[in-house]
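tokens incoming
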């Protein structure tokens, strides 16, 4: 059978000199799900961008249905029948769900509102996911925005859909919705290229898979003849693959409460909720999309002006609601949405990392101390294994997972005593996930308090001492991490 798409000897050298792809070839058969995996910085997103016309290859080429591919830009690719959902999806925050889904469509449907509504409704039904058509996309959670982006690609009726880490922000039930729709569409003859760091997803969903390492293909096989172990060593190469240990409960009794939340609520979002996190403790917040998990972290951090209730840091009430005061009182927030809140893309890595600490790193707080800033960045790059040529690289040139680690590093080395972490390892590869869990545990071991949100309930079990389950803005259960399992957490979070 003629492949739908072939990639032939593609090289990509970015203007900065990074040789991101080194002679990549692969063939995608029609009606299959083709998995693309590899460590952070392996070249997955670069390949997706070349296939979808966002970036030109430096050499090599593509064929489409047996002929040399004719497109040179994303619109041309779309016209040929390729739709891509990129890792950082550009949606227009001020526009509604409806307008975003049909954005960039030239046909008459763009002007025919009732027809668009009907089509959105039909799409939602087809994948089994509900969205409010008139809601501004900027108000949606990262996960719901991801679903809008997927609908946007499907609205083009493509024959090949490229999904770059679509599940990084989705929790188990939402993942199931996505998987079901991918399977259903495959039966209808749609072909997928699917990028993910979750090996269980890849083994479960794909027919064929390609592993990239340092810009080269190291495995290209039918999924059914590969094993998880084989994939792990193909992905990490000679980098040591650390086995994930389970629930590391801290030694000794937990310390004083460092974070106390009393009757905190925000109208229409969550609450009232009350809980404490003690020194040396990692508490997980398990909840689905829209449960209020992110909103709760933001309110604790003082970023929700209409929230009411009391937040105490180390026994002292946090007065006034502003992130600045929160930082001064010892709080740090690692946000979920790195593209919106976390990073300055045009700035160098070292400048991004030292941004929150300019004061403490500066001589008498006036003159920034470049030397100390750079040393801190070098330490962060080593500790977190950020794959970058040098700390002088701008963050915009990093792969998605490595950018996420920079967000984390921004807060890690400061004077904070209470850490609020929203999806700290989203988009991070299997090797680095273990590193991040290790860093979280070391914060606790140093007597800090950590409150973290993760869509991966298994990860919460591995990183936390205690897990608080939140559903529809209310705390519905609390469990010791060692005394619960994925099944129970999923049931509690979804109210089954
Ligand atoms: N715009 C760019 N300019 C310069 N270098 C870039 C650019 N985008 C990516 N790179 C570099 O190319 C290499 C491959 O990056 P890519 O984003 O393709 O990785 P990835 O496999 O998608 O990783 P992740 O799992 O972290 O998303 C990395 O070394 C990265 O720093
Ligand atoms: Mg990527």
């Amino acid at each position: 059978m003629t492949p739908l798409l072939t990639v032939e000897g593609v090289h990509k050298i970015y203007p900065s000199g990074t040789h991101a792809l080194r002679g990549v070839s692969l063939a995608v058969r029609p009606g299959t799900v083709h998995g693309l995996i590899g460590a952070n910085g392996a070249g997955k997103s670069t390949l997706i961008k070349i296939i979808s016309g966002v970036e030109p290859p430096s050499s090599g080429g593509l064929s489409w249905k047996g002929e040399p591919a004719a497109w040179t830009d994303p619109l041309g690719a779309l016209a040929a029948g390729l739709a891509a959902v990129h890792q950082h999806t550009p949606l227009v925050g001020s526009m509604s769900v409806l307008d975003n889904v049909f954005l960039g469509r030239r046909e008459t449907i763009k002007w025919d509102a009732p027809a668009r509504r009907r089509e959105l409704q039909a799409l939602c039904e087809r994948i089994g996911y509900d969205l409010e058509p008139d809601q501004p996309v900027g108000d949606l959670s990262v996960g719901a925005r991801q679903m809008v982006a997927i609908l946007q690609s499907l609205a083009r009726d493509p024959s090949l859909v490229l999904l770059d880490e679509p599940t990084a922000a989705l929790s188990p039930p939402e993942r199931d919705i996505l998987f079901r729709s991918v399977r259903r569409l495959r039966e209808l003859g749609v072909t997928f290229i699917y990028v993910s760091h979750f090996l269980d997803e890849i083994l479960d969903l794909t027919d064929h898979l390609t592993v990239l390492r340092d810009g080269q293909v190291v495995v290209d096989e039918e999924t059914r003849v590969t094993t998880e172990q084989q994939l792990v060593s193909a992905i990490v190469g000679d980098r040591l693959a650390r086995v994930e240990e389970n629930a590391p409960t801290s030694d000794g009794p937990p310390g004083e409460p460092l974070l106390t939340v009393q009757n905190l609520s925000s109208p229409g979002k969550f609450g009232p909720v009350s809980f404490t996190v003690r020194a040396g403790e990692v508490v997980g917040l398990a909840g689905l999309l829209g449960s209020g998990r992110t909103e709760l972290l933001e309110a604790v951090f003082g970023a929700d002006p209409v929230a009411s209730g009391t937040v105490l840091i180390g026994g002292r009430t946090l007065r006034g609601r502003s992130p600045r005061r929160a930082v001064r009182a010892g709080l740090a927030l690692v946000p979920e949405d790195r593209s919106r809140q976390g990073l300055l893309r045009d700035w160098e890595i070292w400048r991004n990392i030292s941004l929150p600490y300019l004061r403490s790193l500066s001589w008498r707080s006036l003159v920034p101390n470049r030397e100390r800033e750079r040393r801190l960045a070098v330490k962060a790059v080593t500790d977190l294994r950020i794959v970058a040529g040098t700390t002088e690289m701008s963050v915009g040139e990093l792969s998605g997972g490595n950018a996420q680690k920079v967000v984390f590093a921004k807060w890690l080395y400061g004077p904070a005593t209470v850490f609020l972490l929203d999806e700290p390892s989203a988009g991070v590869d299997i090797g680095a996930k273990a590193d991040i869990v290790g860093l979280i545990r070391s914060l606790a071991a140093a007597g800090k308090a950590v409150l973290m949100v993760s869509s991966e309930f298994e990860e919460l079990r591995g990183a936390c001492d205690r897990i608080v389950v939140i559903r529809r803005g209310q705390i519905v259960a609390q469990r010791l991490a060692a005394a619960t399992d994925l099944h129970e957490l999923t049931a509690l979070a979804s109210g089954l």
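note: The pocket of magnesium ion (ligand 2) is lined by residues 44-45, 87, 164, 399-400 (CB under 6 Å).
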